[in-house]
Amino acid sequence: MEHQRSGSQLKERMFQVEAIEEDRISQLPDHILSIILSKLLLQDLVRTSALSNRWKHLWALRTNLNFDMDGIFESNHGRPHFSTKQCKHYKEVKLEFARCVDGFLQNFQGTKVISFKLHFLKHLGDTFSMNRWIRSVIGLGIEELQLVLSGMTFSYHHHCR
Amino acid sequence: MSSSTDSPTLTTETTQLSPQPDTETAKPTKKITLKSSDNQIFEVEESVAMEFATVKSFFEDSPSTDTVPLPNVTAKPLSQVIEFCKEQIKFKANPDEAQKKKYNAEFVTEKSDKDLVDMIPVANYLEIKDLLDVLNQAVADRIENKSVEYVRSFFGIDNDFTAEEEAALRREHAWAYEGVDED
Fold this sequence. Notes:
The complex is a heterodimer.
Chain A: H1 7-19, H2 30-38, H3 42-47, H4 53-56, E1 64-68, H5 90-107, E2 115-120, H6 127-138, E3 144-149, E4 152-157
Parallel strand pairs in A: 1-2, 2-3
Antiparallel strand pairs in A: 3-4
Chain B: E1 13-14, E2 31-36, E3 41-45, H1 46-49, H2 53-61, E4 67-70, H3 75-93, H4 97-109, H5 113-125, H6 129-142, H7 148-155, H8 163-172
Helix pairs in contact in B: 3-4, 3-5, 5-6
């Protein structure tokens, strides 16, 4: 392991750090950044594509997709983001949900999706859209597919290894 | 770098695992010296240093070394990482998942945004998987529902898009930009 910095270089460097914060996060390897990405809500994930060129395509590393209508998309902290309680007509909510999922999946360039979950009220379900979404991820190595409709859970676990 | 073995250790930041006096009568636990890029010396118990996969393999390659230089790591995040690993050692000796979870949560809660972000490359370089996981979850929580501008300044990311490129990206996923928190 080399220890290459001379005293004056070090001093110079320290002053630089004071002045400009170095972006050490973006220098991390993809597989480390993908751990952060795997923990974000899907809408937060999508926004990382606008951070910089380095981040533009990184969100494709995400392998767990969890679309939840009661908090588009899932929420870690129960944040009511897009709730059916917000005085919107069901039809409007349904269309908006479908629009978000469609938009996400159209632009998602991931080559592997391990887990795919869809949560929404049964009577808002639209089998045509659901089929389309499931088809778009089914070829990407799915191991877990979960549909929760109106509180009824249908799970499919596929273990290939 | 070179110091004779019997000279007093130049410890600018001493680790305090326990109030044990540093005498020869105490049970001898092997100490390892780590040197940060800003030339701070850290003396840590061997068991703590072995939590760092990078340091561990350094010793496997050159067992006679007395000081491990860490040219990518500055003193502040290193001291915080050492603090974390010392606690993890205690949990290894006395497993208590609930306490461990509580400690890990408190460890990140009390850190500034900058401290968390600065520790991630260190945890990665030293290959401390548990810490990396805790830190990544903590930063994910802190940028939840935040604007692009906020996240850039959180991580210190330079925007290298042209205005047109950025606008196009935002248009592509307009729904994802609705209802984010005020900065």
